[in-house]
Amino acid sequence: MSFPQTTPVRPVPGAFLNTPAVASRFQGKPDPVRRQLFPSTDSNTQNTAVAKTATPSTPRSASLTTTSAAPVTTGIRDGLVAPSVLPPPRTENVPPVVKAAKAINTFLQADERFPELDSYCRPGASSEYDVESTDSSVAPFQKTQMYPIPNQVFDHYNAGELQTLMGLFAEINHAWVVIDNSLFLWDYTHPDPELIGFEDQAHTITAVALVPPKPGIFVNTITHILVVATSADISLLGVSATDTPSGSKTVSLYQTKMNLPLRGTDVRVIAGSANGRIFFGGSNDIDINELYYQSEEKWFSNRCGKINHTNPGWSSVVTLQSGFWSHKRPEHLIDIVIDDSRNLVYTLSSRSTIRTYHMEAPDRLNKVIEKEKVYCLRDVAHMLGQSKLLNDRANIVAISPISKQESAKLHLMALTNTGCRLFFSATNASSYLYGAQSNLAPQSMQVQFVKFPPSQSPRRSGYAGGESITDTESPVLSYSRQGARFAPGYFLDFVSKESNPNEDALFVSGPETGRIKETPPTAPLKYFENSSWIDIGSRAEAVGMITKPFSAAGQPIGFGNELAVQFDDPPSEFAVLTNTGVHIIRRRRFVDIFASAIRGAVGDEGYESVCRRFIHLYGRVETVSTALAVACGHGGESRPGAARAIDQATEDRARAAFVEFGGQPTITETDGTSLTTDSVRLSSRHDALALYLARLIRKLWKVTVIKQGTSPTGGVVINSTIPLSKLSTVQEHLERLRRFLDANRGLIQGLSGPSDLQHVSSRQEEVALQAEHQALHALQKLMESISEGISFVLMLFDERVADIFTRLEETARQQLKDLTYEKLFSQADGKDLAKLLVKAIVNRNIESGSNVETVADALRRRCGSFCSPDDVVIFKAQEQLKRASDQPSNTNQSRSLLHESLRLFEKVAGSLTFANLQSAVTQYIALNYYAGAIQLCLIVAREKDRGNTALLWINDGKPSADPRANAFNDRKRCYDMIHDALHQLDAASSTEPEMVDGRLTLMATKRLEAYEVVNGSDDEVFHFDLYEWYIQQGWTDRILAIDSPHVVTFLQRLAGTNVEHADLLCRFYTNRSRFFDAAEVQAQLANSDFPIGIKDRIRLLSLAKANANVSTTGVSRQQQQLLNHTVTDLLEVAHIQDDLLERLSEDERIDPDRKLEIKEALQGKIQGLSELFNDYADQAGYYDLCLLIYHAADYRNHMTISGTWSNLIQQTHDDAEFRKETTKPGMPLPPLPYESVTSKIQNIAHRTSLDSFIFPIQTLLPELCRYAVAYQQDATIGADPTWPVQLFLTLGVSHDMIVRVLENIFDTQDYGFSGSVRNRIIELIVFVVNDWAAEVRRRGGSGKGGSIGPSVVDLLKRSDAALPPPGHGNNQGGADLADVRRVLKSLKREVDGLSQRVPTGSLRFA
């Protein structure tokens, strides 16, 4: 007998949320997302498989997509169209000091862009000079001093016989004179100098030179080598030149015993290179010789030797210039000059031939260029044509090298006796190649530029209109006897007077830096010079530069900017030696010239005329900046650092010039856009102030503060990169400038603030004035910062800097080594490092026992921004802590000091750095002051986040990339210190007993105090962090013991993170008899996404059900019942899922890969009933589980349920038969089919509680009876034929219900119970009624089915009538019909009697 498949392949509808009805929206169509456990060949399955590829979007995902796309695609909001033009973004607020530093960098860069020499000495010629008289207020040079020759020199001169030579060693402030074989030196600056004599040689001295020593040959005290040449040899003397407090030099001579025999060479010219090489030449040839020396003799060389680089070998001992060899006019050397920057040596011969040599190796010198006079004249002719000043009668009388730092192309300047200056450029053959080396020796040289003498009728080119004409015929500088050029273009020319050949006139000139700098970008650069004549009253013998060589930059661009260094370096000075004395010529600074000009101006008109002339020539910003410098005390014709030498009237005029000619801020056209300060062009007054400030600090702006060295003992030495005296000078100038601005605040537009706005007439003027005020205010703040920064550096070097340096961490050390003054003055990281150094200074003084109050007051007074009032309190607290550490532990004095330090720290908790906090906490712990350490950390954490943004961040779920996370991290660092303190406290307390003689020990008391601070804190973030730390340490018992509202909040949040935390929350609730809350947590955990197995979820739900049934204070019965109902439903579904998992895991029909997928799906979260039915139970044919799903889903479709029962019975029977057939001999027999069916039905009945819809007796009992007959599950196999009704009676179904169902089958003869099979129904009826009657007899009244009524009597009568006559019919598979008749007959009498009795309330029947 087979049964049709009635189990639906579609999802079944239900009344609750968990009803398996997901696919009902498809209205009978295949579910496209339904997975198949087993392949199917029907069309529905194929359609389903095809539809699986199209997964529809859920409404949630669609809404998310819309939301994310809204900001991109939406152009209209609230009915308004977004404007097409957005307003410009606001400029980020820049701190005033940073803005001012940007302006300083701008002007420093402008100074560094000063044109290089090549740019205004382009091919061509010029004769432009501004020739000023010596007494003019704008004269470029002035003679400041004349030192006469001492009388002792004249005494020796009068005793001389042969010859006299004179010269200068200007670099050491000494002059020298040779009288026959005696050499005398004296300090020409001394009023009564002492002569230093060298008279040991017997031969006449022919030449003297002062050269640098070779490195490593002499001791360090030897600063120079004095080379003395006589007619017989050359001697080397050591010179030790030391500075004196008065600024002069003290010179001592030392004998080196180094002598070189000359053997006929007449030495007249000596020169030395910077690396110690000595070159010399004579008056009888053009050979250039080198004197080499070494510290000791060697096998093949003496201590001194000679190398002839012009004619090496035998030719050096033969005079090649004799008439026998050549008919040329004899030629000899006039001068030797050296360019150390290019390793070049230039010689000038008596025939005006210039030869260039290249110093290659330490002992090699190669001639690379020979430039005769005729070739020089040819170069000039190519550029200019003819000039009577440059013909074959003109001779070159002097040459001066031009260094590589000053010019990249120009190498040399030559002076002719007609006063023309020839500028030579030299190149290498490969110099035109891109990337060629710049240090190659030149191979060719030519004249690039000619500077002719000034015109005989001098004119002021500043007033001239149009292009000036070059005068190539002026004889003003004829006859130029000798001359010299010094960087960056100072030119001194000694011209013989026609009236008195023994007296020279000195012509001095220098570049007009201001005019060159002011040249517009579109105009060609010109070599502007201003010059004057200076009377020296005698014949010049030598000239030298006293001050250090000029250099405004290390490269050609910016090198010659005299304006940039006029406040840094002293003005250049030159010494001119005549036969009457030494004349000092000084280059006047631009600030000196301006001060002199306005001082000498007559009346207001003259003063205004002077100012306008300077503005016309040198620009408004430069002029106003110079006026500001004069108003602040510069321009007194004195050396920097000397006392002021300027009158009040000049300062007043300079102040007026700064105020009146400073200009106005202007605003550019905005074309309708909003007015902002960014579009304002600031006034020249602001630019002048910034320029002056930039030049005051240019020497130190980009320079590091310190330089590290090593002492002779190997220790660390820290020195100031800038001399401290220079820092003090800069600070003094800054303070003058600040006082000037404060004193004239009411006169300077932009400094008055709001009062200036009262006079504006338009919005443009108002915005312009606002920008001006902001810029000037920024410069003032920067000046204040610079002054304080210098004070800090000066104070730093008053301390033992090396000790402070070694106390710093390695990172801070590197930062200090990299710290520049710009960072210190204007950048936040520089300020922070300075504050760190201040703390190091104070800590060092604390350790040394100094009074912190004194040190802190000095710091606050000198550099307040680096040492705030809060810092002072911190220092005092640290001092109290240091004093407490010096006291005996656990004394009243120690405790008092600790409490005081904590009080001070708490006052400035917001200013405490983490380093300070860490240091204090470490010391507190060392002194067993755990409560104070914890209290301080809590207060600092609160002050670090006054707005409690960390708590908001935690409450929002800790979103990533949120700035509030920084506040939490800051607080976390404080909490970590508390954790460390608690760790050490627990470690210390664990070593000591808690009670001694019934009293708490000291450590136990401290532990109690510390935990009172911890548990009594109202910092919610701290409590969360503390509990999390407890969990990390495994101290969950501490959390369970804490009675705080923060614990509940913490555990509730943590419960959503993992299973252990949720379990901890359940334990917390259970320990406090909050069973309902524990049940809720367990239910949520069982239904969570955590990786929990299904059996563990069942266990959690069972616990939740048990806890939900326990009465809890504050929870209503209704809440308990609702939770209990929810948990019960969920537990039922979980059991079904667990059964499915076990069944599918053992199902041999499923391949292993699919089993893994099933296990992963069913082992985790509890699935919905729809998924369990559609994806697993229905597909696998687990009809018993389908029935359980119907029950859980409250499904009531009778046809579906009946069909599922039929399929279950059939499937169970088939499985039993299959097991029976496959049982091997010797193995225990499996249960009979009817026994398996009985077991299945009993299991379902128990799990569904005989639900009338899932357990329909009216259809299930007939179906079971039919199964017993159809499959001969009766007496045929030895079974009790009445087992179907016995099963239902065992399950507790009433006799009355069973009888009514059997009566219906008897009457309708359905389910195939007709004919002889009908006897089986009669047998079942008789059995049930008999059992009913027996039950009634036992109970003394009605049975479970109620009292036996007349209908039963009637049924028995009809059953008796339906039986075949005795001897006829059969009851196949059942009991014998005779036995049935016998029982029926007796049963009728008994039932008839029972039906007529009425219960009386006793055990007797009436």
Beta-strand residue percentage: 15-25%
Number of helices: 45
- Tell me how many strands there are: 38
Largest sheet: 5 strands, mixed
Strand order within the widest beta sheet: 3-25-24-23-22
Query: Could you tell me how far the N terminus lies from the C terminus, measured between alpha carbons in angstroms?
Result: 51 Å
> Overall pLDDT, averaged?
82
Low-pLDDT residue intervals, each spanning 5 or more residues: 1-91, 314-327, 460-466, 639-644, 1400-1406
Structural class: alpha+beta
Shape field: elongated
* Rg computed from alpha carbons, rounded to a whole number of angstroms: 57 Å
Give the % helix: 40-55%
Features:
1406 residues, alpha+beta, 5-stranded mixed sheet, 45% helix, elongated, disordered C terminus
Outline the fold blueprint.
Blueprint lengths: L42 H9 L7 H15 L2 E2 L2 E2 L14 H17 L4 H4 L3 E3 L2 E4 L8 E8 L2 H8 L5 E6 L4 E6 L2 E6 L8 E3 L6 E7 L12 E7 L2 E11 L5 E13 L5 E6 L5 E5 L6 E5 L10 E5 L24 E7 L4 E6 L4 E6 L5 E7 L1 H12 L11 E6 L8 E7 L4 E7 L16 E8 L28 E7 L3 E7 L7 E8 L1 H5 L11 E7 L4 E6 L16 H4 L7 E6 L2 E7 L2 H11 L2 H16 L1 H12 L16 H13 L5 E2 L12 E2 L2 H18 L4 E5 L5 E5 L3 H20 L19 H36 L2 H7 L2 H9 L2 H6 L1 H20 L4 H11 L6 H18 L5 H16 L6 H13 L3 H15 L4 H7 L8 H26 L5 E2 L2 E2 L1 H14 L4 H14 L2 H6 L3 H10 L4 H13 L3 H12 L7 H15 L8 H30 L5 H11 L6 H12 L2 H10 L5 H25 L10 H16 L8 H14 L12 H8 L4 H14 ...
Parallel strand pairs: 3-25, 4-29
Antiparallel strand pairs: 1-2, 5-32, 6-7, 7-8, 8-9, 10-11, 11-12, 12-13, 14-15, 15-16, 16-17, 18-19, 19-20, 20-21, 22-23, 23-24, 24-25, 26-27, 27-28, 28-29, 30-31, 31-32, 33-34, 35-36, 37-38
Helix pairs in contact: 3-13, 3-15, 9-10, 9-11, 9-12, 10-11, 11-12, 11-13, 13-14, 13-15, 14-15, 19-20, 19-21, 20-21, 21-22, 21-23, 22-24, 23-24, 23-26, 24-26, 24-27, 25-26, 26-27, 26-28, 30-31, 31-32, 32-33, 33-34, 34-35, 34-36, 34-37, 36-37, 37-38, 37-39, 38-39, 38-40, 40-42, 42-43, 43-44, 43-45, ...
